Amino acid sequence: RQRWRLDGRALRKLPLHMGLVVTEEEPSYADMASLVVWCMAVGISYVSVYDHNGIFKRNNSRLMDEILKQQQELLGLDCSKYTVEFANQDQADQVLNCQSTLKVLSPEDGKADIIKAAQNFCQLVAQQQRTHTDLDVNVLDNLLSSTNGFPDPDLVLKFGPVDSTLGFLPWHIRLTEIISLPSHVNISYEDFFSALHHYASCEQRWGK
Question: Quaternary arrangement and interactors, per the entry (predicted)?
Fold first, then answer.
């Protein structure tokens, strides 16, 4: 536990928001929970979990139970220091005195959310509450419900053989560093931290 805290502090930079994207057909709740708890332990404030079939989102209570279990097993008595807000779109949020915030996303939170935001903006224009010249990046960001209150991801860990993020937040990852790993199943902390170390050492030019 002490090592995880020190690891997070030792990195030159740490992502504020990390996306965990699973492109494999069989998601592992236990391994995803470990990844989330490691993110919390090293000091990452926002975590998004995504699979292209929406399995984690449909079974978010099962994932939350596994996260709480992993917190106890991995952090022991320290787990109260690493509580998480489980922000869910489908039902009332479960808030546990959060230090980290978790969102579980599915494809409907990607392109479909952009379409819904565009429709909402058009309705505002029709109701003369907005004009078409008001539309800009910040306005669209505010209309998107899937990432309300979340910054754009700094880093995405993509798991699986597919060379695509398969619809994960297409509007938000234009400046995101994406690191591919073979699988999230049986992933080790060493693999996770190696990806963080790679992110910390990379130079981001922000399109320049």
Answer: The active dehydrodolichyl diphosphate synthase complex is a heterotetramer composed of a dimer of heterodimer of DHDDS and NUS1. Interacts with NPC2.
